[in-house]
Design a protein that fits this description.
Layout: E1 13-19, E2 22-28, E3 37-40, E4 48-61, H1 65-70, H2 81-84, H3 88-92, E5 96-101, H4 121-130, E6 134-136, H5 146-160, E7 163-165, E8 167-168, H6 171-177, E9 180-184, E10 187-195, E11 208-209, H7 214-222, E12 231-237, H8 248-259, E13 264-268, E14 276-280, E15 286-291, E16 296-298, E17 308-319, E18 325-336, E19 341-343, H9 345-348, H10 355-373, E20 405-407
Helix pairs in contact: 4-5
Length: 413
């Protein structure tokens, strides 16, 4: 089973390579990776090569108090394996998996939910096994536990090999991880993350949280060398809570980014699924996408539209001399009680659910499919095979795959 290319063992080895005056940190994974690369041509003609990456985006990972209690085990600790067991294949089959980490971690044992989230470190410890590579942190709850919350969250993510951006303990981290630069299978990403605010809580002195400011965003995007970057992702925390349509600000910000060359805009905060819009070329190939709201990956919100979310799969293809091609699909997920298990449609059809839960799950799946289809996206993803196994067979390269690389933000790839 293929796991994500940024999944690192706790005893990750770090190699610093100095090239063209910049430092490159190469993280050696604890598993072998497939290299999604194919080439066409012969010895007398130009060889055209293409690279493939499966990118998976998920919404709000939240922790209300009932969720924390449900994760308590018999030894007095916390275990989130059951909550995530059925959704793991979606993420583990990706080359790069990103979610919105909408809580903070605390070592104190005094865990709280809304309105100021403080969660057990065991929540973060579940992310590598689930298949998550990147956590975006710029959201309205990142300052819920002040300096302790930001420092503790970043500390645990660092220790687990989970990359992050959007919130930083200090300017050194900001300069290193804004944007987050990742090379996966030869496709070079720059990832930005911004939030509309922090619920009125002050950003702790010395820490940095990226706030949504079009002047700053324009400056950030203008600093990207597109000869060295294949795909720019901007993840916003935006919109109106519990409203299923994007507001004018969301649409303006999405257009603002796409006009500046951003391929992928994704969002969180409404806690309900909002539409997905594609920008197509003359050949009906998607070249850019906006996912206005991914909804809740997991939470204790139980009202209609809020009790689940959307996982969006973007199969990316880079071919020499061509803009990035994006092949989108989606998977609706619904959260069942009492263990807050995240269920895909195929799993929901097989696990035992109480009558009222069966109906709530059926209603959510129906609502989501109909809503996503309003913008023309009808391809639902059912096959959670590892990236490359369905459409892009592994080439016989004879030398294995290139290791994933995270670069300093100011470094050419």
């Amino acid at each position: 089973m293929l796991t994500s290319p940024l999944k690192y063992a706790l005893a990750t080895s770090i190699l610093m390579v100095v090239a063209t005056g910049f430092a490159t940190w190469t993280f050696t994974s604890n598993h072998a990776e497939k290299q999604a690369l194919s080439c066409e041509g012969d010895s007398t003609s130009f060889v055209s090569c293409s690279s493939h990456v499966r990118l998976v985006l998920a919404g709000d990972l939240m922790q209300h108090v009932p969720q924390v209690k449900a994760a308590r085990n018999s030894e007095g600790g916390y275990d989130y394996a059951e909550s995530f067991q059925f959704v793991k294949p979606v993420f583990q089959g990706a080359n790069l998996a990103i979610l919105n980490f909408e809580t903070t971690l605390t070592p104190s044992g005094r865990y709280t939910g809304y309105p100021q989230f403080r969660s057990p470190p065991a929540l973060a410890e579940a992310l590598p096994e689930m298949g998550i590579d990147v956590a975006v942190l710029a959201n309205n709850h990142i300052c819920d536990n002040g300096r302790t919350g930001i420092d503790c969250t970043i500390k645990y993510l660092d220790s687990l090999g989970i990359a992050y951006t959007g919130a930083f303990a200090d300017s050194l981290q900001y300069n290193r991880l804004h944007p987050l630069r990742i090379d996966v299978n030869g496709i070079r990403f720059a990832i930005f993350n911004y939030t509309y605010g922090t619920n009125g809580l002050p950003i702790p002195q010395g820490a940095i949280v990226n706030l949504t400011d079009t002047l700053a965003i324009a400056q950030d995007l203008s600093g990207i060398d597109r000869t060295e970057t294949d795909c720019v992702i901007v993840f916003f925390h935006w919109g109106d809570e519990y409203v299923r349509k994007p507001n004018a600000t969301q649409r303006l910000l999405a257009g603002f980014c796409h006009q500046r060359g951003v391929e992928i805009v994704a969002g969180s905060h409404p806690h309900v699924v909002q539409p997905i819009e594609l920008i197509m070329d003359d050949d009906s190939v998607a070249r850019a996408v906006t996912v206005y709201s991914l909804g809740n990956l997991v939470s204790n919100q139980r009202n209609r539209y809020r009790n689940g979310g959307l996982i969006v799969t973007l199969d990316l293809e880079k071919t020499d001399g061509q803009p990035l091609a994006i092949h989108p699909s989606y998977t609706p997920v619904w959260v069942s009680l009492p263990k807050y298990r995240i269920l895909t449609p195929s799993v929901a059809d097989t696990v035992a659910l109480a009558g009222h839960e069966q109906e709530a799950c059926r209603q959510f799946m129906q609502d989501t499919r109909q809503w996503v289809a309003t913008e023309g996206l009808t391809e639902e993803r059912y096959d959670f095979s590892a990236a490359g196994e369905e459409d892009h067979p592994e080439p016989d390269t004879g030398s294995g795959s290139n290791p994933p690389v995270i670069l300093p933000a100011d470094s050419p790839l």
